[in-house]
Amino acid sequence: MDYITSPTNDKIKMLIKLRDSAKERKYSGKYIVEGVRMVEEIPFRLFSELYLTQTFYDKHVQNDEKLFKLVNKADNNRKVYIVSDAVMNKVSDTKTPQGILATVKMEEKKVENLWGDDIEKPLILILEKIQDPGNMGTIIRSAEGAGVTGILVSYDSVDIYSPKVIRSTMGSIFRENIVVTYDLVRDIKELKKKGIIMYGMHLKGTSMYETDLTGPVGLLIGNEGNGLSKEVSDTADKLLRIPMKGELESLNAASSATIVSYEALRQRDIKVSVDISDMF
Fold this sequence. Notes:
The chain is of the alpha/beta class. Helices cover about 40% and strands about 20% of the residues. It has helices at about 10-20, 20-30, 35-40, 55-60, 65-75, 85-90, 135-145, 165-170, 185-195, 230-235, 255-275, and strands at about 1-5, 30-35, 45-55, 80-85, 100-105, 125, 150-155, 180, 195-205, 215-220, 240. The strands form two sheets. The chain has a six-stranded parallel sheet. It has a five-stranded mixed sheet with strand order 1-4-3-5-2. Helix 1 (about 10-20) packs across helix 2 (about 20-30) and helix 7 runs parallel beside helix 8. The N and C termini lie far apart (about 60 Å).
């Protein structure tokens, strides 16, 4: 293992750039994750480098079998660095650093990855101009729970690899099939050619409870303040709304995406149960 005590070390400068700059993350093809739980969930094929304090190493590594194996495997590839507490405090994006962070390689995916023979019934979230990191992270995390098979994100949304988004995903960023697009409308049209039915979330839409979401589905989710643009909503085969009581006009993007995704999951689970019962 190498030891780093200076905040002016080139690797530390690189970490700060990765933390602060979406441009640097894109250029290098790497991003940062912090905390023992997130680090343990990194697929090793995406693992780049590991940084931890001596305090963390002495207290945790020997007592955590999974972490011990990861550190030793990384060390064998000369990818482990012990840093001082002061250096960790300088590069961390949190107020109370756990003492461990890693750099991770981005896994570039294209719109073609959103369909295929291995995806029987696509359930795709399509996100336009989502700006809040917490919303984006929550959407990615809840998407995994709802069985979403892919997420298409417009390039002008918040960077999915920013530290706040990564932290909010709680590890789902490693498992969800996420594609960032520079031409959202074009790629929506490509998905439609593959037989995916597009549903736009809109206040003037039909109740989602009255709509069959068991087939190949794309769910269009718009910007927190303005919803879907006309250009994107015009690509929808049908507009949907979430029925609400009281005086609420709308829910935020993360809530809307979560609710409609889980409604699709509910319908699909019911359909599977019915199909199985028909066999007996």
